[in-house]
Amino acid sequence: MIAKHSLHGHLYADDSQVCGFCRSNSADVQHLRSVSINCISDIADWKKCNRLQLNSSKSEFIWCASSRRVKKLDCNPFVIGTDAVQPKNEVRDLGLILNRDLSMTSHITGLVRTSFAILRQLRSVSRSLTQDATRHLVQSLILSRIDYCKGRLSRLLS
């Protein structure tokens, strides 16, 4: 159904994502907007026929562009069902926070903040633990968070 609208979909157990791409001129943006709204409407109709419901109040969308063009993005809301969904500056995608300019600064800032908070907590109990136990805690609580989505983070450096 999503491919019928020339869009791309990512389906998860309780979450669905619809993605589309266009050039930054206003005609292409308006076309992508109308195609996306029609696709979401078709999905909502399919869900209704199968006794499911699209929760439009939890729906989010984000326009992504380069940092130069992010100011030119369309800020008008999408109308999904009876709800008007405002564009977000950042969205969460399976634990990864994506910014409008795809810089991932929010994700990295949150990761650093969480890691330092864990290190402060570990410092207070590390005297009661062996060096091996402390190392295992650091690996499981901090390195696993840094390792998560490392493929996307590494692409920022290249």
General description of the model:
By secondary structure, the chain is an alpha+beta fold. The protein has two domains: 3-90, no CATH class; 105-157. Helix content is 44%, strand content 14%. The chain contains four helices and six strands. It has helices spanning 26-49, 105-125, 131-147, 150-157, and strands at residues 8-11, 16-19, 78-80, 83-85, 90-93, 96-99. The strands form three sheets. Strands 1-2 form a two-stranded antiparallel ribbon. Strands 3-4 form a two-stranded antiparallel sheet. A two-stranded antiparallel sheet has the order 5-6. α2 (105-125) packs antiparallel against α3 (131-147). The longest helix has 24 residues, at 26-49. The chain starts with 7 loop residues before the first strand and ends with a helix.
SSE blueprint:
Blueprint: E1 8-11, E2 16-19, H1 26-49, E3 78-80, E4 83-85, E5 90-93, E6 96-99, H2 105-125, H3 131-147, H4 150-157
Antiparallel strand pairs: 1-2, 3-4, 5-6
What are the main properties of this structure?
single chain; 158 residues; alpha+beta; 2 domains; two-stranded antiparallel sheet; two-stranded antiparallel ribbon; 6 strands; 44% helix
Number of helices in the DSSP assignment: 4
Q: What is the molecular shape? A: elongated
Could you name the ranges where pLDDT drops below 50 across 5 or more consecutive residues?
A: none
Strand content: 5-15%
Total beta strand runs: 6
**Secondary-structure class:** alpha+beta
